[in-house]
C-alpha cells in the first residue's frame, strides 16, 4: 500500500499529494514516488550527440540521436 503523506503529532512531515513528478518526466532508470506514493521508474531517454566530418554513418541510430557535422 502506497503512502502519500505522513503526519506526526499533527504536523505533516512528508506530503507528496501535490507533487508533479511522473515517469515521463524522469530520466530513464531513475526512481521516485508519484503523488499517490507509488514508486515510479523514469522513462525519458536522452539523445546521443555524435560529431564527425561529412555524412553520418548509415549505422547511426534514428531514435532521436543527433549528428553534428564539424567539418
Question: What does this molecule look like?
Answer:
The chain is an all-beta fold. 0% of the residues lie in helices and 32% in strands. The chain contains no helices and 6 strands. A two-stranded antiparallel ribbon has the order 1-2. It has a two-stranded antiparallel sheet with strand order 3-4. Strand 3 and strand 4 (39-41) form a beta hairpin. The chain is rod-shaped. The N and C termini lie far apart (57 Å). The model has no long low-confidence stretch (mean pLDDT 87).
Task: Give the SSE map.
Elements: E1 5-8, E2 11-15, E3 31-33, E4 39-41, E5 49-52, E6 66-69
Parallel strand pairs: 5-6
Antiparallel strand pairs: 1-2, 3-4
Summary of the model, kept short:
The chain has no helices and 6 strands. It has strands spanning 5-8, 11-15, 31-33, 39-41, 49-52, 66-69. It has a two-stranded antiparallel sheet. A two-stranded antiparallel sheet has the order 3-4.
Amino acid at each position: 500500500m502506497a503512502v502519500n503523506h505522513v503526519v506526526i503529532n499533527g504536523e505533516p512531515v512528508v506530503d507528496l499529494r501535490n507533487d508533479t513528478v511522473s515517469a515521463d518526466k524522469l530520466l530513464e532508470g531513475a526512481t521516485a514516488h508519484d503523488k499517490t506514493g507509488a514508486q515510479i521508474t523514469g522513462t525519458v531517454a536522452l539523445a546521443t550527440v555524435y560529431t564527425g566530418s561529412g555524412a553520418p554513418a548509415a549505422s547511426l541510430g534514428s531514435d532521436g540521436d543527433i549528428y553534428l557535422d564539424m567539418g
